[in-house]
Amino acid sequence: FDGVVSFSGAVFSGGTVSFAAFFSGSIVRFEGAVFSGGTVDFSRADWSHPPSFDWEGAPPQGVKLPAAGDAAQP
Q1: What is the DSSP track for 56-67?
Q2: Is residue 39 within 8 Å of 60, Cβ to Cβ?
């Protein structure tokens, strides 16, 4: 991604969404996104500049993050 990308207001409520993206300096925001079902898979994303989320602690059920040591985590 390049520039500012916002998924604010996005609703991930079923199915599978896979982000095999390169987050490398752009501002990518998921604040205000709803994760209420299905799978949102970030495990293949490069998080050298991770996106921002508004959850605290563990991610919501169904959200897969890169493995520890694979990339920077939020």
Answers
A1: -SSPPTTEEPPP
A2: no
On average, the pLDDT of the chain sits at 85
Instruction: State pTM to two decimals.
Output: 0.79
Distance, in Å, from the CA atom of 65 to the CA atom of 42, rounded to the nearest integer, reads 5
In angstroms, rounded to a whole number, what is the distance separating the alpha carbons of residues 54 and 31?
Answer: 5
Is the confidence at residue 2, as pLDDT, over 80? no
Q: What is the pLDDT of residues 32-50, one digit of tens each?
A: 999 998 999 999 988 777 8
β-pair type (11-12, 27-29) = unpaired
SS3 12: strand
Contact 21, 1 (CB under 8 A): yes
Dist. CA 71–CA 49, nearest whole Å: 9
The helix or strand, by DSSP H or E, that contains position 16, with its residue range, turns out to be strand 16-18
